[in-house]
Structures are given as structure tokens and as C-alpha cells.
Amino acid sequence: MAWRSSFQRVTLLANQRAVFTGVINHQQVALSNLVSPAREPRPSASTKIETNIVSSRHSDCPLHETTMVNRFFDNATRYSKKVALECGITGRKYTYEMLVHLIRRYGSALTRAGFKKGEVMAIISPNVPEFAIALLGASGIGMPVALVNPTFTPAEIARQLSTAGATAIFGVAPMAELLKQVAQLCPSVRRIILLGPPQEGFVCFQEMLQDSGDLFNENIDIDVMNDTFILPHSSGTTGVPKNVMLTNFNVGANVTQNIYPGTSKNQLATDQYQETHICILPFFHSYGVSGILLIGFDLGAKLVTLPRFDAASYLKAIDDYKPTLLHIVPTLAHLFIKHPALKMESFQRIHTIFCSASPLGEKTATQLQDKFNMPDLLIQQGYGLTEVSPGATQTPLNNDTFGSCGRLISRTKAKVIDLENGVTTLGPNQQGELYLSGPQVMKGYYNDPKATNEMISEDGWLRTGDVAYYDEQGNFYIVDRLKELIKVKGFQVAPAELEDILGSHPAIAEAAVIGIPDEHAGELPRAYVVKKPGMESVTDAEIRSFVDSKVSSHKQIKGGIEFCDALPKNNIGKVLRRELRTQFHTK
Q: Is residue 35 part of a domain?
């Protein structure tokens, strides 16, 4: 489709650099009532396991009842002259002081345009520095922000925005045609705001940044505990994707939990030092927006954005910027391991390689460590899900347990529940479903109380849908998946969504989709299809083409299609996906 090639040409933004001239006002900003975070004592080494409930070994981190926008403003005064965001393609950059001005101006411009607290703004954009301005500017006037995968088809995006009731969209100029199609499918959208040159029918983002800022109300009444900050997309443990309500408190708590002393090797910026991150993992993903962008802001880090992944530009950014920490998924680990000509001098500042979104196997972690051969390099893993903002565990700073996804971060509790009766809380080294509790647990699914109640118990425990166990030291291990969700390169794919599309094919009687292991993607969708009588001639290529035309790339059925006479079901007719997975592994 035409919009896909346009999206891939997002690097044309380099030619728009001049548009930013004159936008930034370098005047000083005065912020009052600033709070500097206290450095808490390091955790004890012991893990608490009482009545088979595991508690974090860390002492309780502080919890701040402030919005993420005011939290950013507070931090920005300490790092005002440091570069906060820089485009790794064009080189355009913003200091922390500049961002404060522009966030206020964007929020004021939205208010001037008639947008109000509670209305939803969607960001449909690759990683660009302005993503943060759009996010915090909208949030600053009380607008929840829906985070949308820009590689989705117009129908997929419209479905997400219609569910959230979005009234505004922020995107980039090369995606103009896509966004126009989305707005036609989603009548609630009133304005499309484009980063790039002015275009008829769109609002120019740069022109909005010329607003006086006088309508930005820093004291707007926002309920930190209950008002939604962001609406990322997740399938939970079952069903089609849903909008996850993460409050300012949820996300703020998780940022603090993840950088609490003794949890990571990250350091606050000083006159002599600044963490530098290459932001290749997408900001529309909870790992990218919370685990990289917002944590980076708390640290006063320099965040270098790349709008799309290709190995050459990614490795060039590492060469150019000499990052201190790399955020990766297993696919990038394999890139480092197998690349024949890494410039190892470009990695000399790196203290941590942090992997999440998909499990990093023990063998891969060991190969990665051997490749870099740096005694002080920490290969760290984490586990979480969108519904916990997204982090729950991290491996310790002396990580010697490759294969584990880590120990609980501060203020987090976990238990493992028996798979047979769904009630008994199991002890160490016993496999069951992992449940989590903590301040980072989501408020719920937007406009979906039924799904929320299925996910969160009355006493606040969240079902993860993952089969896990923990050892006597409190290290957790993920061994299987109960939930139907398929993870492709860290992105979520709901089998129900693909099954619905397959079921609409005239030759298919019924279908089931599972995830199968893949070395590079983590998992790939695989379909099991029962043909209708008289439709025996239909081929897997025809069916695959039918599905591929309706979904984005990571949802395509790249794990293959198998035709069968019947699907395995239980006595109430529910398809037994676990049995299909077992059949696949035994072949």
C-alpha cells in the first residue's frame, strides 16, 4: 500500500529541519516548589517469602502524588541545559528547558482549539523527539493519550481509536494519507495534527508550538490516582486488544520502582555525566514510553530517537552517540552476536544491556556476554506486561542467573497459583500461574469492566496469564503461557483477532491460531484451519494472502497454516490451544 512506503520515508523529515527555526524560545523558566528525589538506602539481600507470597527484597521506594507532566517540569529545572531529545537521523535536538516551553505551548494550543480535559488524543507516530511534546502537552491539560502502532492498517487503528473515543490525532507528515483514512473511519476525530510542513486539511504541529502558552493551566484539577495518563493497547490474557488505563500514579510509581537504588546501574545526570540511550524500541509500546522515555527524563538522560529500525542506521547511531545503556529485545541480541564487524570501541561507555518484551534465553545471554567480553557489563533482564506499567521484575546487579527474568522490584508482590484448582498458592519451584500486586497495576481496561474483573481480583491481584515458578532466592522463571496472546518481536497479537478474519473467508469453517517459537521473532502466528465441505481446493497461499491484506506485518501468519479435519475442544466447545501447541512441539 502507498502509505507503507511513505511511512518508511519518514527520514524525509531531515528536509524539514528549517521549519523548526525560530520556534524555540530560549528564555529562562522559573519553577517553584521543586522536590529533589532522596537517595534511599540500598536493599537488603534477603527475599521475603511468607505464606507462599513473595515480596520484593528492596525497601519501599517513595511514591509521589504528582502528574507525570509536573514531574517532568520538576526534573527539567535540574537538567535544564542538557539535551533531552535528539533525532538520530536529522540531528535536531531539544534541551530540557526547551521542552518545558514547548509542552506548555502545545497544551495551550490544544486548549485554544477547544479540546478539554477527558478527551482522548491519539499518537500515531514513529519515534521522533516531538512524540514527548505531544504526549506531555496533551496530558498537561488532562487529555489521556492513546498510544497506537503506526504500522497498523487504517481499519486496525480506527478500531482502537473508536473504542477509546479519540478526538485528536498527532502524527508525522509522511503518514498523512493513512491518518486521513483513519479519520474517515473514526468520526469522533476532529483534528489531525501533523509534524511537518503545513498541509491542507491538517493542523501544523510547528504552528501550534508558536502559541503564547497562556492557556496552559499548570494547576488543572487532575486526580493523580484515578485519571488516565496513557492508553496503551493490550490483549490481556485473552480476547481482542483493549485499551489499558494507566494513571499518572501507576506510571510514576513504575518509573520510580525501576530506577530505585540497587535496581539498576542508571545514574542521575551531573555536570560530568549523562546517560545516553538509543531509542529504537517504539514509544507506542509501554516498554518504550515508560521503560525508556519517562525513565530517561527522570535521570536527565539524552534520548536519541530513530524513527524505524534498520541495522545500518542503528549501528551508526551507536557509533555516533556512544550510549551508556542499550535497551534491546532478543532480535537485537542476535544482531550483536552475529554481526561480523561491530566497532567495539563504540560500546565502551555501556554499563548495561537490558532486555525485555520477550525472554532472552540462557544460551543467547551467554553468547551476548562472550561477544562483548566486558567484565563490568551487566546483561540485565526484566519481566512485565502493559497492565503493570509495564515492569515487575529485574535481574539483580550481580546477575549470575541467566534464564531468570529477575526478582521483584520495590513495592511489588507475587504469588504462583495452582493451575488445576485456581486457588492454592504454591511454594518455591512449583509451576503455576503468576499473579502480581503493586502500585503499578493498571486501573483497568477502558470501558470494559468485564475484562477488567477477569484480569484483576477484588483484592488487587493481577493475573498475568504466564506459567512461572520462583526459587528460594526469589528469582522468577517464565516457562509457558496460559494466555492466548502471541508475542512477535515484543508486539502483541491476539489469536481471536486473526481467527475472526480467518472465519470470514468463504472456504473456512473454523480456525484456531497459536504462537510457535521463532529464534528471531520470539513467536510467530500459526493457523489451524478446517475447510468447509466442497472447498478442498483452497490453498494455504490463498488464505495467507487473504489475511495478510487485512493486518499489519507482525500479525501475518508467518508460522504457517495447517489444514485439519477438526479442532481439539473441551466439553463446552472451547478450542484447546494448549493442545495444539503440544501437537506442534511433538511433531
A: no
Q: Do 382 and 426 contact (CB within 8 A), yes or no?
A: no
Q: From residue 289, how far is each of 85, 120, 313 by CA, in Å?
A: 13, 17, 21
Q: Which of 468, 496, 530 is the last residue of a domain?
A: 468
Q: Provide the b/e sequence for 409-448 (b: ≥16 CB within 10 Å).
A: bbbbbbbbbeeeeeeeebeeeeebbbbbbbbbbbbbbbeb
Contacts of residue 5, Cβ cutoff 8 Å, sequence gap at least 6: none
Run of H or E including 144: none
d(CA 121, CA 133): 13
Same domain, 93 and 154: yes
The three three-digit cell numbers of residue 217, written as one number: 493551566
Q: Which of 468, 497, 529 represents a domain boundary (last residue)?
A: 468
Pair 407, 511 in one domain: no
| Same-domain pairing of 198 and 283 | yes
H helices present in 186-237, as ranges: 205-208
Residue closest to 12 by CA, chosen among 171, 150, 174, 130: 174
**How far does Cα 580 stand from its chain's mean position?**
29
pLDDT digit string, tens, across residues 24-48: 332 222 222 223 333 334 444 567 8
Reference 89, options 21, 16, 148; nearest CA is 16
Report strand pairing: 53-55 vs 413-417: antiparallel
Task: Please tell me the total count of domains within the chain.
Answer: 2
The reply to whether 433 and 545 lie within a common domain is no
pLDDT, tens digit, 9 for 90 and up, residues 137-187: 999 999 999 999 999 999 999 999 999 999 999 999 999 999 999 999 999
Residue keyed to cell 493551566: 217
Q: Would you say residue 182 lies in a domain?
A: yes
Distance linking the first and last C-alpha atoms of the chain: 37
- Checking if the pLDDT of 516 tops 90, the result is yes
Cis peptide before 439 (omega within 30 of 0): no
Q: How far is Cα of residue 98 from the mean position of the Cα atoms in its chain?
A: 26
Q: How far is CA 230 from CA 130, 397, 444, in A?
A: 17, 30, 12
For 543-553, give one letter per residue: b (16+ CB within 10 A) or e: bbebbeeebbe
